[in-house]
Structures are given as structure tokens and as C-alpha cells.
Design a protein that fits this description.
The chain has 327 residues and is mostly helical. The chain has helices spanning 17-33, 43-60, 63-81, 86-95, 114-121, 145-165, 174-197, 210-220, 227-239, 244-250, 259-269, 284-289, 306-320, and strands at 100-102, 110-113, 136-137, 140-143. It has a four-stranded antiparallel beta sheet. Helix 3 (63-81) runs antiparallel to helix 6 (145-165).
């Protein structure tokens, strides 16, 4: 990149059109699919499009879009990394200052220092990633090639997010501004749907808003809740990642439980029956009108929807979760 000695004004030239288009395509795919196609057939276009895409994303100044793009690039990196040989994996890991080496046993490929392991699994909810479920010898966690690639993808995600934190202090040519504006409009049109897609697959009850926490507690205790309360709880749990089977089982505490009717209603709300629409909970003002809101807390006063509360509380929990210090 340095040898090309490119200036920002050079990018307005038609000869760089393919590079700008590829950069826009990378971001467009991140917005629409949360992943990026493997690569452009022209290697030079592919390489140059990455820093241009970083510049375009930075110009949007949208934290949510920045995180989504970093995640999409990380997924792309994972798909490439898991095909690399052992030496290349270690070379890339060393770039991120990992303490890693080839494992001496044959059942795994690598031995990674546990602090590097913990730093990169803090956001993983699957039980297989918990340290208590891993083979730990001499302070090292043993990994397969696929697992090492997955953890490196986390490093890539944070590396890109850090690049995107830098404030863009450039006056962009109109050509690039046009690309950025198209991407901003696309993102705005998809933002609501994307936010629902980004909820975690595992339910985090500590992040429930007061209304859902109260409804959830009432159902577990077998206490009666209103029709809108049942709809609110069911749609919230489905949107936050709970399976229809788990929701049906939750309602078994009710004295009037009817499995056939309950299963039909839950599957209908989940989009598996009827109109095939996956419903979302009512807004906060609607819940207050129907007496479902037990009282607002500080977060409630800043949001208008139970799912918005859930996303914000998840972010707070993630931010406050301590990570192992590097040694």
C-alpha cells in the first residue's frame, strides 16, 4: 500500500472505480448478510478495497454499523484461516502477540496460553468454550485448527473495530461521499431487522427489562398473567433466542395449561404457523397502558421497547465483565 503512494484525491479517478465498487460491495454484504464473500478475483482490487472500506465505514460515524462490519470481516477471516496450514496459523497468531505453539499430542493441533484463550472467548456462550470444559495443561489450552481459527477471528474483529475508532479527519472526494451515502441509506432501511438478528442465541435472563423479569417470574410461579402479558413474554423470549419448545415448557406451570393450544399459539408467535410472521413484543408505552409495566428503572427511561432494553443491558454486562489480564 505504501509503495503505491496513493492520495485521497486519486480515488476520484475513474481508474479506481472497481476498487471503490468492491469496497462498497464489502460493506453492502456486511449490512445485508453479516458476512463478506471470500474475495475479488483481482488480488490488487481486493487488497486495496479493504482500507477504502474502512474509510467509508468510518465516514458513516455509526457505531452499530462499525461493529457489524468488523464482525463480517472476522467471519470472512475465519473461513480463510481454517483452511491454512499450522505454520501460517501460528505466524498470524504471533502477530496478535499470542503465546502459542504446536501441541505435542496428536488429538489437538495447538497449545495456547490460557490468558489469550480467555480474552478471546469472553463473548462465547457455548459450553464447549468454558475453561472448565477444556483440557488445560501447564497453563495452556489445547485447540484444534478450527478452534484456533475461530479465536483468531475474534482478534481480527477487535483489530478492525480499533481501526474504526479512529476519527476520520479527511475531506472525502464526492465520488466516495456518493458511495457512503448509498450505504447509509441501505443501512437505515435494514437497521430494525438487523437489530433483531443480532440478539444472542442464548437467553441472558440478567438482561431482562423489569416487565419481562416480572412476567417470567410470575409464569415460573404459576401465577396468572393477562393475555397481553403472555403475548409479550412469549414474543420477547422467542426474539431473544429461546426455542419454542422451551417456551411451551415454561407455561406448563399454569393450572389451565393445554399443550396443544399453547404449542399452537407459541409457534404462531414464532412465525411457524399462520401468517409466518415472527412477532415482536409491544412497545413500552403500550405495556404501560395495559398495566404490564411494574415500574421503570434508569435504563427504561432511555428506551422505548423491551428489546432495546435487552440489547443495552447486554452491552452493559459485556462491558462490565472482567477479562483476564495479559501476562
Amino acid at each position: 500500500m505504501k509503495t503505491l503512494d496513493l492520495k485521497i484525491t486519486d480515488l476520484a479517478s475513474p481508474e479506481y472505480g472497481q476498487i471503490l465498487n468492491r469496497a462498497e460491495k464489502r460493506i453492502e454484504e456486511a449490512i445485508l448478510y453479516a458476512q463478506i464473500s471470500q474475495q475479488h478475483p483481482n488480488q490488487e482490487i481486493e487488497i486495496l478495497s479493504f482500507p477504502i472500506a474502512i474509510m467509508m465505514i468510518s465516514a458513516t460515524n455509526d457505531p452499530f454499523l462499525k461493529r457489524r462490519y468488523a464482525l463480517a470481516e472476522a467471519k470472512r477471516a475465519y473461513n480463510s484461516l481454517k483452511l491454512e496450514n499450522a505454520e501460517k496459523i501460528i505466524t498470524i497468531a504471533v502477530f496478535f502477540n499470542w503465546k502459542i505453539k504446536l501441541a505435542e499430542q496428536t488429538t489437538t493441533d495447538y497449545a495456547l496460553n490460557f490468558t489469550d484463550y480467555l480474552r478471546n472467548t469472553v463473548d462465547f456462550h457455548e459450553s464447549k468454550w468454558k475453561l472448565v470444559n477444556r483440557a488445560l495443561q501447564n497453563g495452556e489450552v489445547h485447540l484444534t485448527r478450527d478452534e484456533a481459527a475461530r479465536l483468531l477471528a475474534e482478534e481480527v474483529r477487535r483489530h478492525i473495530e480499533k481501526k474504526l475508532e479512529a476519527k476520520l479527519e479527511l475531506e472525502l472526494p464526492q465520488t466516495i461521499i456518493d458511495h457512503v451515502e448509498r450505504l447509509e441509506q441501505l443501512f437505515i432501511s435494514r437497521k430494525g431487522k438487523i437489530r433483531l438478528e443480532t440478539l444472542p442465541k442464548e437467553v441472558v435472563t440478567n438482561a431482562f427489562p423489569p416487565c419481562i423479569r416480572q412476567l417470567y417470574s410470575d409464569v415460573q410461579s404459576g401465577r396468572h398473567i393477562s393475555h397481553i402479558g403472555r403475548f409479550t413474554l412469549t414474543s420477547f423470549l422467542i426474539q431473544s433466542g429461546m426455542t419454542t419448545e422451551d417456551v411451551v415448557n415454561l407455561f406448563r406451570t399454569f393450572s389451565d395449561f393445554n399443550e396443544r393450544m399453547t404449542r399452537y399459539q407459541v409457534e404462531h408467535i414464532a412465525g411457524g404457523r399462520g401468517s409466518r410472521t415472527k412477532y415482536i413484543p409491544p412497545r413500552c408505552d403500550t405495556l404501560r397502558t395495559h398495566g404490564v409495566c411494574p415500574g421503570m428503572n434508569e435504563i427504561c427511561r432511555k428506551i422505548r421497547h423491551p428489546l432495546a432494553y435487552y440489547r443495552r443491558k447486554l452491552h452493559i454486562i459485556k462491558r462490565e465483565t472482567p477479562t483476564a489480564p495479559r501476562t
